[in-house]
Design goal:
4 strands; four-stranded antiparallel beta sheet; 248 residues; alpha+beta
């Protein structure tokens, strides 16, 4: 984060250091993973399985399913590997709705994960090396390059405040760590009290809350009526609308 405001040489060195750490960490993770999927994907799928338990699955065909999530519904096509939430298409990993459909059809969830997340492919992907850059005093720079003046490219400033953090994918911010929206009226997820359409019958608790609200309104009204005028000392009005201010 700090390298964003530094000169370009420090930015490139920061990027190189991050890439070096990524290659080593992901290669180590791939070597310690199972035979099919890496540890991070397996952990992510385990969290999705827990989330999919609360969904209602309705079979449309043997490959298309309707997933009901509270007041929302999504259509999952296992043949095309698509979901109405678009997470399945973007991440190439089954979303929680697709996991519910896959489990309903008795298919293995790991069979719908893209090949790029398989352990064999990850080992080959992260098997390369990111070599360090030698000391700048040892660089051999030609004279024609030294004489060049390198200015920053023209880039018009966009509207709004510049973003300092990148958008994380669903794999990095799994569903278990993500704060889910919950309605304070019906206690369901994926919506709030403003757009809640759930039917909730009146209960004693609701009546008691309404009674408390009405009593507080009456008390505040009585308190407003008992205000005293600072000019004449009478109750029921203030100095602004006092009929005796001009006389006094």
């Amino acid at each position: 984060m700090w390298a964003r405001k530094m000169p370009i040489v420090y930015v490139l060195e920061s990027v190189r250091k991050i890439m070096q750490e990524w290659f080593f960490d992901r290669l180590t993770d791939a070597k310690s993973s199972g035979e099919v999927l890496c540890n991070r994907v397996e952990s992510h799928l385990a969290n999705l399985v827990m989330l999919s338990d609360k969904f209602v699955v309705q079979a449309l065909t043997d490959q298309r399913y309707k997933i009901v999530d509270g007041i929302k519904s999504y259509v999952v096509d296992l043949a095309k590997r698509e979901c109405g939430c678009w997470e399945f298409q973007l991440e190439l990993i089954p979303c929680s709705h697709a996991v519910a459909a896959i489990r309903f059809a008795n298919y293995p969830v790991s069979g719908f994960v893209a090949e790029c997340y398989k352990t064999v492919n990850l080992k080959g992907m992260w098997g390369g090396e990111v070599n360090p850059v030698p000391d700048p005093n040892e660089w051999v720079v030609p004279d024609n390059i030294k004489s060049e003046i390198c200015n920053s490219p023209p880039c018009p400033r966009q509207a709004g405040r510049p973003r300092l953090t990148r958008r994380r994918s669903a794999l990095e911010s799994s569903g278990s760590n993500r704060k889910r929206q919950r309605c304070s009226r019906c206690k369901s997820e994926c919506h709030n009290r403003v757009n809640c359409h759930a039917y909730i019958p009146l209960s004693d608790t609701t009546n008691a809350e309404a009674t408390d609200v009405s009593q507080s309104s009456v008390a505040s009204a009585i308190k407003r009526r008992s205000r005293k005028c600072s000019a004449c000392g009478s109750e029921g009005h203030t100095r602004r609308n006092c009929p005796r201010v001009e006389i006094i």
